[in-house]
Amino acid sequence: MKKIILQAIRRLEAAFAMRAGKDDSVSFKSAIRKFDEWIESKGFCSTDMTIPRLCTSLGISRYELSWVCHSVYRDSFTSLRKRLRIAEAERLLLSKPEVPFSHIGEQVGIPDRTNFRRQFMEITGMTPREYRESHMK
User: Fold this and answer.
1) Torsion angle in degrees (nearest 10) through CA of 53, 57, 60, 63
2) Does the predicted model carry a pTM greater than 0.90?
3) 21: pLDDT strictly greater than 50
4) Neighbouring C-beta atoms of residue 58, cutoff 10 Å
5) With bands split at pLDDT 50, 70 and 90, how would you rate the model's confidence at 110?
6) Cα separation, 96 vs 132, whole angstroms
């Protein structure tokens, strides 16, 4: 997760440099700050978070959310949310080895066991079990 955030900071600096001097840069800075706070609070783990709900809760427009995701994180909201969830799952798999995989999936916002396994494999190339076993040696 720290790697994702560090990459985002670098992209953010580049994005600010590109947007320098434009009237709406304050609005985008605010949108970035709000979105970063949402990530830090692990809002991506919520199972009922839709794009319209997120925009409403953050007080930003869909356009601003899209701009933040694409310009800062170089991804769509859906893909970014999936990567963040799996990064959190990786952390939990190692820090809580006693917790079953299905509960880890629920904690990161992917309550369906099969879907969690599929998404985890898609991002990491391993099943949650393989990941835990390979990192717990």
Assistant:
1) -20
2) no
3) no
4) 19
5) very high
6) 10
